[in-house]
Structure formats: structure tokens, C-alpha cells
Amino acid sequence: MNTHPTTAPNPYAPRTDRRTTPGPVVAAVVVGTVALLTSPVVVGGALGVIGLVVGLFALRAARRSGAGRGMARTGSALSALAVVVAVVMAVFAVWFADRTRDCYQYREPGQWVQCVQQQYDRG
Question: Which end of the chain is more exposed for a tag (fewer CB within 10 A), N or C?
Fold first, then answer.
């Protein structure tokens, strides 16, 4: 028979079995998120490339520590998506500029809008 009273674990004591997430993993998610949010203005493309590099380091750190592998993959995926969105936006901007190049002579917004509409009505 056990003569020592059993005590319940203290719910307010810090947990010692929790693994900490490596810094590069958190950085990959943050950079990937910022890159995706700024990718419509093409700046996110450069941030996305940086995020991909940080994501590779994050995957290595996650593999070594055993924590944060999903977050590292998420950061890398967000960065890759940001690069794709930035490239699509850049291609669209070049296409739009080429399509409306005859309208750049107008200084008034109303004239410019009318010219752009005529360019698209032409085909």
C-alpha cells in the first residue's frame, strides 16, 4: 500500500514537455505572409524569394529540432504563391501598358478613361 499521498499536477506550472518552434520557422511564416499581402504591388515577389530562402533554412531547422515542420512548409508555400502572384501582376501591368499606350498623352482622367474604353472596344 502506498503511504505517500498523491497530488494532482499543478495546472499553472510551466510545461516542460513542449518543444519550442525554431526562429527561422516563425520568420518563414511572417515573411511569407507579408510577401503574399504585398504581392499585388509586385514588391511581394522580392519578399517571396527571400521567404523561399528563409523557408529552406526553416525546413532544415525544423528537421533538426523536430518542431515546426508544418509552419515551415506553410511559410514556403506562402512565399511561392507570392512570387507567382507578383509575376502575374507584372505581366498584366505590362500587357495593360502596351494595350493603352496611345492614351498616355491625355492629362485629364476623364479623357484617359474614355481612351482606354475605346482601346478595349476596338478589340
Answer: N
